[in-house]
Amino acid sequence: MFRDACRLRIGSAIPLGCALAALWAIPARADGDLELFTPANFELNGDVRLVAVDGEKSWVERGFGKLRSGSDGELRVQPELGNASLVWKPQFTWSVGGVFVGSVQGGQRTDAGLSQAYLTYRPMRSSNFAFSARAGLMWPPVSLEHEGADWHVKDSITPSAINSWIGEEVRPVAAEGSISTRIADHKLRATVAIFAANDTAGTLLTFRGWALHDRTTLAFRSQPLPPLGPLTGHQAPFTHPLIDLHSGFAHRPGYYAKLVWVPPAPVRLELFHYDNRANPQTVTPAPEWGWRTRFDDAGLVADLGSGAELKAQALQGRTRMGFVIDGRRFVDDRFRSGFVMLTRPFGKVGLAVRAEAFDTRNLGSIWTDEYDGHGWSAMLAAKRQWGPVTALAELLHVWSDTPVREDAGEPDRQRQTQLQAEVRMHW
Amino acid sequence: MVRNILIALALAGAASPLAAVSLSVRVVDASGKPVKDAVVTLHPAGSAARPAHAGGRFVISQQNMQFHPFLTIVPVGSDVSFPNYDNTKHHVYSFSPAKKFELKLFAKDQSRTVHFEKAGVVALGCNIHDQMSAFIVVTDSAWTARTNAQGMVTFADAPNGPGHLSVWHPYLRSPGGELTQAVAPAQHSASFEVRLRPPPSAMSMTDY
């Protein structure tokens, strides 16, 4: 059944279909570990926030603004529903479970749908090795900032540019396996996965550039694109990041791999590689194109003592789309970003400060270097928890420069400051 | 008369090792700094050996993705319960020869109990959260204690007789993490110089 479902044209229904088909394929075991609908199988999370923002129109409204909310240049203050998620975590046997997350996202555009749907397999480890596996619609293990089944941002409201992009364009239907071991006092973990349904990753990053927000793409949903300049009419004014464009599901599967090393020191190092292996010449009637996207990510987490933690992440990649003209594809975008974040508790209040930089460089035949962009941002956040309720405040400033804004009659250099106060609930 | 004298001498000889003395043990590292939370056990020879009071109930909880406490000393025959106070499930296990067990997934506010009937060190872990680690020292000796911040343990009622002392620490560089030395009758103090390796990183590798 699982295989039959996966043969179906992806369209928009395959991610959920594969996960549910795989669920059916699990052999039933009446060993007393089956837990489907107990209170422990459910989580309800959500947040409301008060947002004060200045600067340009948000990308959510087809602008070039880097943030989740935008303005017309004046300071705009308004309450918003942030994100709300219902998580179902059924346990089929003690080693086989599932994670299914339905989400609603508010703000200047409301979306509702499926966020993640995958099965987990975690058998009992041996004395030397631990194996685990996942299969379904899920985020690959890239972000150092997100946690939980609802994939909320841990120490702030807004994630970095890197992990904002992961949230919006990098979420395949994958089959993933991990193995962990310990060699002397060193811990190692290797993860590999093959995936499909992520063929358009890179569209939003290229046309809009990097952004900083906690909106994620939901299954079957699209993201708006800003004005497309010379590619207007050749690319739909939207993108579906979670689709498979090729004939036959997983006809050209992509892959990712990750290596984690924890030496005998309070440090964790991560390396991650992703390649969606999409055909950049495949195009749908919409039209939406295949984007051949590859990137490498390196992460560092260091425990500095007294609860302080340093996190750093750097990502560099390339995405290509379209046919070759004069030796260059329509789009050939090199992108990179990096951030450093320091978190530390002061009494019951946790503080986080983050600085980052980002850029895109275009060498395409149509999307040329005049569409390059670069920028930086700085963030300060505070967090206090009372049981299931967490209060957060965040000040975020972003500066960016991209000539593509001039096509829309806007200055190429923009500054934007956003102050948010959020109440986050978890049950 | 002679017979009475022989009996008296025999009783004196037998009673002598049983007379209590105070035995202080100090554990230091290679630089002379005191080592805290090392487990020191006195094993008197022969009839002076006395098992720890058998049984008892102990608690090792799981909270904030860690075991609490990190080190627990229990007598042989004890029951240890493992209540989970985290919002996530845990899967507690041990591969140690002294007690192999696993407690498959149990959720917040649930608890499982394990009976420890054999002396030895039991290393605990969680099958889901690799950063979780703790140790149980199951002892069959009445003279077992952990060193304080000064690296000291004092047995006020140690038998005045021969035996041997052992010291164990989770990060001690020695086979089994243990060192031993002999104890002579009327000995009032002993010391161990140990080499410790750095504690393994508490960093998690778990992605989901």
Radius of gyration of chain A: 21 Å
Low-confidence segments of chain A, given as residue ranges, are 1-16, 23-30
The CATH homologous superfamily name of the largest domain in chain B equals: Cupredoxins -  blue copper proteins
**DSSP strand count of chain A:** 20
Number of helices of chain A: 5
Strand count, sense and barrel status of the largest sheet of chain A are: 16 strands, antiparallel, barrel
The strand line-up of the biggest sheet of chain A is 1-2-3-4-5-8-9-12-13-14-15-16-17-18-19-20
In whole angstroms, how far apart are the ends of chain A? 35 Å
Summed over residues and divided by their number, the pLDDT of chain B gives a mean of 87
Number of helices of chain B: 1
Helix content of chain A: under 10%
Chains forming the largest contact = A-B, 32 and 22 residues
Radius of gyration of chain B: 20 Å
N-to-C order of helices and strands of chain B = HEEEEEEEEEEEEEEEEE
Find the CATH topology of the largest domain in chain B. Immunoglobulin-like
Kindly describe this structure.
- The complex is a heterodimer of chains A (427) and B (208).
- Chain A has 427 residues and is mostly beta strands.
- Chain A has one domain (2-50, 80-373).
- Helices cover 9% and strands 50% of the residues of chain A.
- Chain A has helices at residues 2-7, 14-25, 161-169, 203-208, 404-407; strands at residues 42-55, 73-88, 96-105, 111-121, 129-137, 146-147, 152-153, 173-183, 186-196, 223-224, 238-239, 254-262, 267-275, 291-305, 308-325, 328-346, 349-362, 373-386, 389-401, 413-426.
- Chain A has a 16-stranded antiparallel barrel with strand order 1-2-3-4-5-8-9-12-13-14-15-16-17-18-19-20.
- In chain A, a hairpin with a 2-residue loop joins strand 16 and strand 17.
- Chain A starts with a helix and ends with a strand.
- Chain B has 208 residues and is mainly β.
- Chain B folds into two domains: 20-50 and 143-199, Carboxypeptidase-like, regulatory domain (Immunoglobulin-like); 51-140, Sandwich (Immunoglobulin-like).
- Chain B has a five-stranded mixed beta sheet, with no helix packed on it. In chain B, strands 13-2-15-16 form a four-stranded antiparallel beta sheet, with no helix packed on it. Chain B has a three-stranded mixed beta sheet with strand order 14-1-17, with no helix packed on it.
- Chain B is globular.
- The termini of chain B are far apart.
- At the A-B interface, strand 9 and strand 12 of A face strand 8 and strand 9 of B.
